[in-house]
Amino acid sequence: MLGFIFTDAAVAPEFLQRALSAANGRSFSCITVDGDTSTSDTVLAFATGKAGNAPLVDDGSDGADAFRAALADLCHQLALLVVRDGEGATKLIEIRVEGAESDRSAHRIAMSIANSPLVKTAIAGEDANWGRVVMAVGKAGEPAERDRLSIRFGETLVAKDGLAVEGYDEAPVAAHLKGQEIAVGVDLGLGEGVATVWTCDLTHGYISINADYRS
């Protein structure tokens, strides 16, 4: 992954670095296609200063908030394009973890779910197999208690306090999984930690593309 961002705004290097690091932490660092990375994975930002504005030097500068927001939005859009373009991908999957002991813990759990081949293939097959989500939570190595765990697909709660929601309507879940944008929600019930990450499904197309690939 190579990302190059250019702005004609005048921005001090230190402030630009802080703004990019913050934006990256909520975008490129929150996506995964297959869990693998590259030695060339890079995101760079350049400010030419051609706009002639008063330089943005810190958060107190006029326009600093707007610049940070615009940069964060751009990084978010670009990061989702990477996931949408994953090899063989047919679905964009958003995974939101709440109720973790910390944001860091929530992020690790969310990435464990996002990188699980079993979760990704279940969604490719449009199967709301929430047991696979539980498995991915457990293998993350972060604090979690089965009896406090809740899971949803789309807006439908399918598991609460570690057990299937009795009598939940499967129809909206099935309809949601047939779409191209899938939402999976996990509530650990332990604390205030939250994180959102994005991934794609794992299909036969991934195998075909990577089995035939040769550099």
From TrEMBL:
The keyword Heme does not apply. Signal peptide: none annotated. It catalyses: L-glutamate + acetyl-CoA = N-acetyl-L-glutamate + CoA + H(+); N(2)-acetyl-L-ornithine + L-glutamate = N-acetyl-L-glutamate + L-ornithine. It holds the Pfam family ArgJ. Pathway: Amino-acid biosynthesis; L-arginine biosynthesis; N(2)-acetyl-L-ornithine from L-glutamate: step 1/4; Amino-acid biosynthesis; L-arginine biosynthesis; L-ornithine and N-acetyl-L-glutamate from L-glutamate and N(2)-acetyl-L-ornithine (cyclic): step 1/1. Keywords: Acyltransferase, Amino-acid biosynthesis, Arginine biosynthesis, Autocatalytic cleavage, Chloroplast, Cytoplasm, Multifunctional enzyme, Plastid, Transferase. One of its GO terms (molecular function) is L-glutamate N-acetyltransferase activity, acting on acetyl-L-ornithine as donor. One of its GO terms (biological process) is L-arginine biosynthetic process. Substrate binds at residues 87, 210, 215. Its EC number is 2.3.1.35, 2.3.1.1. It is found in: Cytoplasm; Plastid, Chloroplast. GO terms for cellular component: chloroplast. InterPro entries: Arg_biosynth_ArgJ (IPR002813), ArgJ-like_dom_sf (IPR016117), ArgJ_beta_C (IPR042195). The keyword Plastid applies. It is an enzyme of class 2 (transferase). Catalyzes two activities which are involved in the cyclic version of arginine biosynthesis: the synthesis of acetylglutamate from glutamate and acetyl-CoA, and of ornithine by transacetylation between acetylornithine and glutamate. HAMAP family: ArgJ. Belongs to the ArgJ family. Heterodimer of an alpha and a beta chain. This is Arginine biosynthesis bifunctional protein ArgJ, chloroplastic. It comes from Rhynchospora breviuscula. The lineage of its organism: Eukaryota, Viridiplantae, Streptophyta, Embryophyta, Tracheophyta.
